[in-house]
Amino acid sequence: MKNLRTCLTCNAKDDKKNLFRYIINDGLLMVDYFQKLQVRGIYTCKRESCIKNLTIKSVKRSLKDENLLKIDKEKILITIKNNLIKDIFSKIHIANKGGFVTATTNKIMESLKAGKVFTFFFIANDISDNSKERVLKFLRDPYQFSSFFSKSELGSIFGKSETNILGLFESAITDYIKDQVKIYSNIYTEGVVSNGNRKNN
Ligand SMILES: [Zn+2]
């Protein structure tokens, strides 16, 4: 790892792409989500505790900048949340262009019957209980899914008005998406559900 940085809260070292970056702007600490701003910055782990335990004192000392007045942690957490969701959504688009996504319950059923293996699913967060039960029933093996997006959001990826479910095939971009969903789940304790222990009724 050539871009090693240190978390200001817990002192763990990691590649900077595995950490969040922050800068001071107008007296406020702001997330530099894409790590592109040409200003000195500090880093934390992508963990709620490391974000929440940042102190004004340690940031000022690290950046040798006395202009920090406030760290609005709630706002920082919302910014990170929005960026993660946007990033995940745009990567599903890219995965789809690469042929790694299948939509609609029927097509996913066909693919499963043909022996194809999905490694992650997005199930719409506004489908009816009946549809959800149907979707969950035909997925026999343990799998993981997330419900970040609505039917119309998922549909828009395919130029459709709505779809209940997307399945992602194994690929580097799918792994990236799964990593981002995991980061989201670690911080916000929601986002990913596993049916590994689900009982059919
Ligand atoms: Zn840390």
Characterization of this structure:
This protein is α+β, with helices and mostly antiparallel strands and 201 residues long. The protein folds into 2 domains: 4-71, YlxR-like (Hypothetical Cytosolic Protein, Chain: A, 2-Layer Sandwich); 79-194, 60s Ribosomal Protein L30, Chain: A, CATH 3.30.1330. Helices cover 40% and strands 20% of the residues. The protein is built from 7 helices and 10 strands. The protein has helices spanning 48-52, 56-63, 73-97, 105-113, 129-138, 151-156, 172-188; strands at 4-6, 13-15, 19-25, 28-31, 42-45, 101-103, 118-123, 144-146, 165-169, 193-194. The strands form 3 sheets. The protein has a 5-stranded mixed β-sheet, with helices on both faces. The protein has a 3-stranded antiparallel β-sheet with strand order 4-3-5. Strand 3 (19-25) and strand 4 form a beta hairpin. Helix 3 packs antiparallel against helix 7. The termini are far apart. The model is unreliable at 197-201 (pLDDT under 50). Zinc ion is lined by residues 7, 9-10, 12, 44-45, 50.
Cα separation of the termini: 48 Å
If you consult CATH, what is the topology of the largest domain?
A: 60s Ribosomal Protein L30, Chain: A
**Bound compounds:** zinc ion
Which residue ranges are poorly predicted, with pLDDT under 50 across at least 5 consecutive positions? 197-201
Largest sheet at a glance?
Answer: 5 strands, mixed
Radius of gyration: 20 Å
* Strand line-up across the major sheet: 6-9-7-8-10
Number of domains: 2
